[in-house]
């Protein structure tokens, strides 16, 4: 054991050379997701679209999910194809168990066994609790909780050995925000189910992780200008997150290099938390 006060320069050299040896063991591999069959629930817009394009650049095969916006999904498919990947759109409301099941069927039929499953679907209902209705809660439960369960359970049944499952949560489950009680409450359930699942698939070499973005510039950003300015001020990196910032983290978690990361909730937020 070393403490900082009694550490000598020689100790420091020893520690540094040790860490170089360890890191060089894992750095010889070129990351490639080429041919990895991927389903992205909510791949049509925002972070899901940026993820589809990023994985497409790495020549993955992508099934691009949407709930109602077919035009957006088709646009994502075109962008993936332009970036070098293969893609097709599928319609699946994650609150519908059968639709999720069919999405896996369609992906297996088109590409083969599924290697990567990403669930970015969410309903974002915001407002002070006194103004929220039971209906607001039920809509959020249907997508953020039941939807997460449908996707995670189907992924657990069908994912290929050494696959990757990624569930989206939000930094809001760690940093309570005014007006976000239903959103963060229901996202926390999806997050927790995914982390629980990470304990169940180790015998197949499958990892399950959560990514929790901070405030990210998408259609899902439902804050006024002052709230966004205040969040930027609280962010050490001093800007709003872009979908590509988060998509790069997804790509890393899907890579071979991330094989030892399992059951983690990765905060992708510029350091606000
Ligand atoms: N943006 C942020 O600031 C932020 C912060 C923290 C966490 N997140 C999380 O990151 C993820 C992506 O958010 P985003 O902001 O990129 O989303 P977004 O731009 O608002 O897009 C929403 C996406 O969800 C799909 N969707 C909506 N309801 C669905 C349902 N019932 N079933 C399947 N798909 C559904 C939409 O499909 P259509 O195009 O068909 O409508 C669309 O692809 C979400 O899980 C969100 O909770 C976002």
UniProtKB/TrEMBL annotation:
Record key words, sorted: Oxidoreductase
SUPFAM superfamilies linked: NAD(P)-binding Rossmann-fold domains (SSF51735)
InterPro entries according to UniProt: NAD(P)-bd_dom_sf (IPR036291), SDR_fam (IPR002347)
Statement: the UniProt record of this protein carries the keyword Oxidoreductase: yes
Source domain of life: Bacteria
Position of the signal peptide: none
Keyword tRNA-binding: no
Family that this chain belongs to: Belongs to the short-chain dehydrogenases/reductases (SDR) family.
Protein's recorded name: SDR family oxidoreductase
Provenance organism: Parasphingorhabdus cellanae
Source lineage: Bacteria, Pseudomonadati, Pseudomonadota, Alphaproteobacteria, Sphingomonadales
């Amino acid at each position: 054991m070393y403490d900082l006060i009694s550490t000598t320069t020689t100790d420091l050299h020893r520690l540094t050379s040790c860490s170089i040896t360890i890191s060089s063991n894992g750095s010889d591999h070129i990351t490639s997701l080429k041919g990895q069959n991927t389903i992205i629930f909510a791949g049509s817009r925002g972070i899901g679209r940026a993820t589809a394009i990023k994985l497409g650049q790495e020549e993955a095969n992508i099934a691009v999910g949407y709930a109602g916006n077919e035009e957006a999904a088709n646009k994502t498919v075109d962008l993936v194809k332009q970036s070098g990947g293969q893609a097709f759109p599928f319609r699946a409301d994650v609150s519908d168990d059968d639709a999720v099941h069919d999405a896996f069927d369609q992906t297996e039929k088109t590409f083969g066994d599924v290697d990567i499953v990403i669930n970015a679907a969410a309903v974002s209902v915001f407002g002070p609790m006194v103004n929220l209705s039971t209906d607001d809660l039920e809509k959020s439960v249907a997508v953020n909780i039941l939807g997460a369960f449908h996707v995670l359970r189907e992924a657990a049944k069908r994912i290929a050995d050494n696959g990757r499952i990624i569930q989206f949560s939000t930094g809001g489950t760690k940093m309570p925000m005014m007006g976000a009680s239903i959103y963060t409450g229901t996202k926390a359930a999806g997050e927790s189910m995914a982390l629980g699942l990470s304990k169940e698939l180790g015998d197949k070499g499958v990892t399950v992780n959560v990514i929790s973005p901070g405030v990210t510039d998408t259609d899902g950003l439902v804050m006024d200008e002052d709230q966004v300015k205040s969040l930027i001020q609280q962010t050490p990196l001093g800007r709003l997150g872009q979908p590509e910032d988060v998509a790069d983290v997804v790509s890393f978690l899907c890579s071979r290099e991330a094989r030892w990361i399992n059951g983690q909730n990765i905060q992708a937020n510029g350091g606000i938390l």
